[in-house]
């Protein structure tokens, strides 16, 4: 009944032009209010999270001041907390992960768009999307049970033996091969962010107008030259967006890292040693955190992660703006 | 990043109270260590009486917070509260089952129970001072055992845990350096090694890492078939972790003289005593807001004391000695309703 009434409704209201316009204006206004409300909700949630993190972390900052950020010790017994070890772990694991995932991701995307035979394109593309859909806990369990023992018996002894006598590098790859540690966490993170970087890069590479590439090939460019001088400049904003999405995931990744990083509140020169990250620390310790200062210190860690993510995004925006200006 | 809000939300939920499940007649929250036996008891109890127990194993710290916030009928903790702490919140405390913490190792060529350690050696290993398995300190305790030159890899808990409290409390009692430098708590600043989440995390890491030493609840050591060590106890005797040696540790404790039966069973005297034994505890309000709920909870624990012993043994827990159970049930008279009447009369 009601459905039948709808198509006839406009006919009745079109009796006068003013009424019709009024009606359209009203629906426009409602639409405007609705979309704006949706956008404001986002801001309200974000603001609420920041405010509650800030209030929650006040006792910790009152007790330790800004020393909290530069102190390595994390002692629940004497209630002396410092965030430096988790901050370091978060940054270094994400850095190594990006170092590995960015070139590989770009190469996969390039292969998929430029070189891959048609019949292989679909299976490869689906494989990447499947990789992105695996929950992080699965990566964690896989990392702990299969990947870490594998590294312990193969890659890590190799690294220790190879770089044992090289100055500087020897301290980077020092110590007994635990299997789990900063390097293992970084490798798992690299695998986890790879699909983000790859699929976004592929999508933007595909958006490059064929005529540009054909012109470049036409004047004798190699595939590498086309990629370097045509595809990459054309798509840099999108590609960097993909990096940022991947980096965001790496910085905040919790479960997979908790399983394989070794959870030690220490800063070691060696990337084979156990470490910890901000999110792993929170996940490990929140349930059993007794006392206001302990809980507050964990919330303060959350706030710091927020700030780190913000700084990373700001730097990315700045770099992007600079490239835009230079190239014009 | 996106996990942080979720975790904070969980924390907020835990702090403000988990909404009780409608079907549950009895609500409790706390320690993860006794969770397997509480779950098994709850299942059998439901079949027998129709009343169900909703136990959230959120950790001892969470259990203490929940009972303080009065969102549950009982809280559960592995780290007993002291007399003043109990009085501050008007709580009463009693033990339910016993268990033990066991050092587990992964050394090639060493059979289960073949290796013996003492407290000081264990403490020095966990401080990173004993770096290889053929260290003279270990060799001295184990004449005739072939020890490899392998590096010692220490594995500890990364999450806060009652198991860690029991273990570090023992090390504090037997090694002065450990007491001053590290101390005893559900989470400590570990001087060495790597952290793993939960008993199963430690068990997995030890099982996979050659030269590893860790500590887990006895039940996990047994179920995962890990290689355990014997320990030299206070009387200087080497004992293996068994139900009998846990019971022996409990037998010599001064239960009734300790407020809230809060005996910490580490380093107890007696030739048979396992030095790292522990009881797990229940916390309840002396003046509960809902006396009927407390009565239901006490009914459940009465049933567990009388009929739950066999089930506990099946899961490698040790039932409380009868003498202690009697004293505990007498102490329940302290739990009173608004009119000052005990909420539950133990039918003895």
Largest interface, with Cβ-Cβ < 8 Å? A-B, 51 and 42 residues
What letter string, H or E per element, gives the SSE order of chain A? Answer: HHHEEHHHHHHHHHHH
Through-space gap between termini of chain B:
56 Å
The overall average pLDDT of chain A, rounded, is 88
Instruction: Count the E strands of chain B.
Output: 13
Strand neighbour order, sheet with most strands of chain A: 1-2
| Rg over C-alpha atoms of chain B, rounded to the nearest angstrom | 21 Å
Share of residues in strands of chain B: 15-25%
The 3D shape of chain A can be described as globular
Percentage of helical residues of chain A? over 70%
What does this molecule look like?
The complex is a heterodimer of chains A (328) and B (348). Chain A is mainly α and 328 residues long. Chain A is 78% helix and 1% strand. Chain A has a two-stranded antiparallel sheet. In chain A, a hairpin with a 4-residue loop joins strand 1 (74-75) and strand 2 (80-81). In chain A, helix 5 (118-133) packs across helix 9 (182-206) and helix 13 packs antiparallel against helix 14 (292-327). The termini of chain A are far apart. In chain B, helix 5 (119-126) packs across helix 7 (162-174). In chain B, helix 2 (35-49) links the parallel strand 1 and strand 2 (53-56). Chain B has helices spanning 3-16, 35-49, 60-68, 83-88, 119-126, 136-141, 162-174, 176-181, 198-208, 218-223, 243-251, 291-307, 309-314, 322-331, and strands at residues 26-30, 53-56, 74-77, 91-106, 116-117, 153-157, 194-196, 212-217, 227-228, 230-232, 238-239, 277-285, 318-319. The termini of chain B are far apart. Chain B is of the alpha/beta class and 348 residues long. In chain B, strands 1, 2, 3, 4, 6, 7, 8, 9, 12 and 13 form a 10-stranded mixed beta sheet that branches.
């Amino acid at each position: 009944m009601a459905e039948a009434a709808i198509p006839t409704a406009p006919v009745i209201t079109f009796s006068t032009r003013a009424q019709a316009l009024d009606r359209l204006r009203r629906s426009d206004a409602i639409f405007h209010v609705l979309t704006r409300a949706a956008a404001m909700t986002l801001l309200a949630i974000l603001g609420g999270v920041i405010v509650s993190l800030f209030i929650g972390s006040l006792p910790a900052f009152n007790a330790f001041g800004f020393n909290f950020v530069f102190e390595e010790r994390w002692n629940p017994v004497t209630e002396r907390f410092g965030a430096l070890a988790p901050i370091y772990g978060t940054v270094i694991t994400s850095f190594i992960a990006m170092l590995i995932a960015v070139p590989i991701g770009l190469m996969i995307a390039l292969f998929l768009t430029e070189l891959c035979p048609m019949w292989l394109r679909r299976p490869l593309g689906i494989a990447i999307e499947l990789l992105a859909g695996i929950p992080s806990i699965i990566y964690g369990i896989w990392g702990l049970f299969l990947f870490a023992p594998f590294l312990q018996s193969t890659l890590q002894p190799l690294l220790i033996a190879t770089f044992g006598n090289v100055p500087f590098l020897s301290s980077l790859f020092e110590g007994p091969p635990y299997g789990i540690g900063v390097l293992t966490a970084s490798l798992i993170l690299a695998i986890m962010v790879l699909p983000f970087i790859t699929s976004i890069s592929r999508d933007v590479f595909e958006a490059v107008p064929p005529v540009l590439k054909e012109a470049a090939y036409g004047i004798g460019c190699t595939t590498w030259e086309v990629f370097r001088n045509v595809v990459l400049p054309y798509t840099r904003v999108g590609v960097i967006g993909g990096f940022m999405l991947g980096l965001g995931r790496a910085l905040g990744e919790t479960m997979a890292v908790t399983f394989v990083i070794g959870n030690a509140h220490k800063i070691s020169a060696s990337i084979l040693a156990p470490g910890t990250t901000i999110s792993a620390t929170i996940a490990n310790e929140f349930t059993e955190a007794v006392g206001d200062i302990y809980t507050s210190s964990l919330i303060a860690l959350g706030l710091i992660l927020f700030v780190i993510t913000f700084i990373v995004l700001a730097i990315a925006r700045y770099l992007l703006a600079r490239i835009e200006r230079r190239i014009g | 990043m996106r996990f942080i809000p979720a975790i904070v939300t969980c924390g907020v939920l835990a702090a403000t109270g988990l909404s009780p499940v409608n079907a549950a007649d009895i609500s409790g929250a706390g320690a993860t260590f006794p969770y397997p036996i509480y779950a098994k008891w709850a299942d059998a109890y439901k079949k027998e009486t129709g009343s169900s127990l909703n136990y959230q194993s959120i950790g001892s710290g969470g259990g203490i917070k929940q009972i303080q916030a009065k969102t549950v009928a009982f809280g559960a903790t592995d780290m007993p509260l002291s007399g003043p702490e109990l009085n501050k919140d008007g709580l009463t405390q009693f033990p339910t089952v016993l268990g033990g913490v066991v050092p587990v190792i992964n050394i090639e060529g060493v059979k289960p129970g073949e290796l013996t350690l003492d407290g000081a050696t264990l403490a020095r290993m966990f401080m990173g001072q004993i770096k290889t398995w053929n260290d003279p300190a270990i060799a001295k305790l184990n004449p005739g055992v072939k020890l490899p030159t392998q590096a010692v890899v220490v594995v500890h808990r990364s999450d806060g845990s009652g198991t860690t409290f029991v273990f570090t409390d023992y090390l504090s009692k037997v090694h002065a350096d450990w007491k001053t430098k590290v101390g005893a708590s559900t989470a400590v600043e570990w001087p060495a090694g790597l952290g793993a989440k939960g008993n199963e995390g430690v068990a997995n890491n030890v099982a996979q890492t050659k030269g590893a030493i860790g500590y887990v609840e006895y039940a996990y050591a047994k179920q995962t078939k890990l290689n355990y060590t014997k320990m030299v106890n206070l009387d200087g005797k080497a004992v293996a972790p068994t139900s009998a040696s846990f019971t022996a540790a409990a037998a010599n404790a001064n239960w009734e003289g300790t407020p809230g039966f809060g005996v910490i069973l580490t380093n107890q005297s007696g030739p048979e005593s396992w030095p790292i034994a522990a009881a797990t505890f229940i916390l309840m309000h002396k003046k509960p807001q809902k006396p009927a709920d407390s009565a239901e909870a006490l009914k459940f624990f009465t049933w567990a004391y009388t009929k739950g012993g066999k089930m506990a043994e099946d899961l490698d827990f040790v039932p409380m000695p009868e003498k202690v159970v009697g004293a505990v049930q007498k102490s329940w008279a302290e739990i009173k309703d608004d009119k000052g009447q005990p909420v539950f009369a133990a039918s003895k």
